[in-house]
Design brief:
With about 100 residues, the protein is mainly β. It has one helix and seven strands.
Length: about 100
């Protein structure tokens, strides 16, 4: 699924209560990629991502690569919401991320 590159500050919290400031690097209606400095999560972990100014987004960690974490949202975002967020926090052009 195409993702829109963004630079959106957020806080990520694990189901066990660990939290870290992070930023959302790309986003689509079904998920996002976050970059975190010190939060360690595993594939299959449940997380809540709280971007500045909007409600928390819950999801499942699908992949981890260094400090990058791919999250699939529990409830997809409406495409107009994704467009609005990417317009406010744009960091470049649309990218397509595919992780096995």
């Amino acid at each position: 699924m195409p993702r829109k590159r963004v630079a959106m500050p957020a806080v990520c919290r694990t189901a066990s209560g660990l939290r870290d400031e992070c930023h959302i690097a790309d986003i689509s209606s079904t998920g996002c990629c976050i970059a975190t400095r010190k939060l360690f999560v595993r594939v299959g972990a449940r997380v809540t991502i709280r971007p500045q100014g909007i409600e928390g987004l819950t999801g499942l960690v699908r992949w981890v690569s260094g400090n990058l974490v791919g999250v699939e949202f529990d409830v997809p975002l409406y495409e107009p919401v994704v467009d609005h967020l990417s317009g406010l926090h744009t960091a470049g052009s649309t990218v397509c991320v595919s992780r096995a």
